[in-house]
């Protein structure tokens, strides 16, 4: 299997589907897109790791980011107080020339995430930036949870709260010592993870915030989660399929990393957890 070679590959537009597994993508993509599909090995099992290992030099890219880890805030990943949990001294704006924080401008409070159409809207509204840059990336949040068919996503809402708190602290408007951390500390998942000390059950806690209890009882965690995950991917692909005819040049659809549903005891995705469900990503050159 070839490494992802994200920047070394030939493309004009790259559409990144956050947390998109190769196997699920390969089963559904041709309902929406035509092209040549490859399986590639990512450089990271989470967005911070992928970004840190991918963007090391100076890159002339118009980057429309639905993911708050890749942002124009100028704060290194290892200093983020809302969930990066890494020691990477890496700042997106130091390496990517033009970042558009769609995770802010396109946020949907009801869904608790950035819906895919927000990426297309940001792209259309910033054509001057696209024309100036050598290449363009649109980084979608889906199929990453929360699951759009359910709404009220909790996990990313807490990250969004933390971002706002940290921005206030950086501007001297809040308590830099603990505002963001305290806002996260009051949520369910960190309390559960602390009590269970990183066990497999604790890793499932993040999924439980997104799933319907009735589905869990009926189908079990893995089956219920995979069903909603596939649906999230399909929603994203519908939006991607509408946008691609407007893109003039070589278009790639890929992912930063995958998502685990219990394989090797892992749920969701975690930094430096290099197992196939997290590292095997699609690389589709669109016809």
UniProtKB/TrEMBL annotation:
InterPro entries: Alkaline_phosphatase_core_sf. Residues 159-186 are annotated as: Disordered. Residues 164-174 have a biased composition (Basic and acidic residues). This is Arylsulfatase A family protein. It comes from Natrinema pellirubrum (strain DSM 15624 / CIP 106293 / JCM 10476 / NCIMB 786 / 157).
């Amino acid at each position: 299997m070839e490494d992802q070679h994200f920047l070394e590959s030939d493309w004009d537009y790259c559409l990144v589907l956050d947390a998109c597994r190769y196997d699920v993508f390969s089963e559904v993509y041709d309902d929406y897109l035509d092209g040549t599909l490859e399986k590639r090995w990512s450089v990271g099992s989470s967005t911070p790791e992928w970004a840190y290992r991918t963007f090391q030099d100076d890159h002339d890219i118009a980057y429309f980011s639905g993911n708050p880890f890749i942002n124009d805030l100028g704060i290194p990943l290892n200093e983020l107080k809302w969930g990066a949990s890494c020691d990477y001294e890496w700042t997106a704006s130091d390496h990517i020339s033009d970042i558009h924080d769609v995770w802010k401008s396109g946020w949907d409070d009801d869904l608790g995430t950035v819906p895919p159409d927000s990426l297309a809207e940001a792209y259309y509204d910033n054509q001057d930036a696209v024309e100036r840059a050598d290449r363009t990336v649109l980084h979608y949040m889906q199929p990453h949870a929360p699951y759009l068919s359910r709404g009220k996503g909790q996990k990313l809402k807490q990250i969004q709260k933390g971002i706002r708190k940290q921005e206030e602290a950086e501007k001297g408007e809040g308590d830099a010592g603990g505002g963001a951390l305290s806002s996260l500390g009051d949520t369910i998942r960190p309390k559960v993870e602390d009590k269970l000390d990183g066990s497999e059950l604790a890793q499932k806690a993040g999924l439980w915030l997104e799933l319907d209890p009735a589905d869990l009882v009926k189908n079990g965690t893995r089956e219920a989660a995979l069903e909603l995950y596939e649906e999230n991917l399909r929603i994203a692909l519908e939006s991607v399929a509408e946008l691609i005819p407007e893109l003039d040049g070589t278009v790639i659809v890929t992912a930063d990393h995958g998502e685990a549903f219990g394989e090797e005891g892992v749920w969701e995705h975690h930094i430096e957890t290099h197992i196939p469900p997290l590292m095997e990503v699609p690389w589709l050159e669109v016809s």
